[in-house]
Specification:
133 residues; Immunoglobulin-like; five-stranded mixed sheet; 1 helix; globular
Length: 133
Amino acid sequence: MHTLWLATIIDGAATEPCDHAVAVDGGAFQPASTAPPVPAEFQVDDGTSFLDIRATPHVPELWPVQGQFTFPFPGSPDLVSIDAPDSFGPPRSSGSPGAFLMVVDTYLSRLRDASAACLASLAASSPPSSTTP
């Protein structure tokens, strides 16, 4: 069993107005414990293959984020990002066999990268009509 800590950072400072949920191996999202002290905590079984992590801020000015992480091999304490935005810091771990602590920082932002949506919208538009005299 590994312990996963999910820390939230807003405007450069650790904060707690955020709900974290974790889905194990494609299952349903389960809330991470938010009992003090911060950060949120989730227990991960040794046989877990991958985790989906979701952070939902309590205020509408901040954007929710979600990412997927995997373990290089069964029982490994090392999480590796496989499909996570830059809003998640690199996972860190420490400890000894059977007592690993993994930490994932989530950086919430008031801004959202809409580049992909803008490019898709532009690609779907019809080209401007040309008129020749």
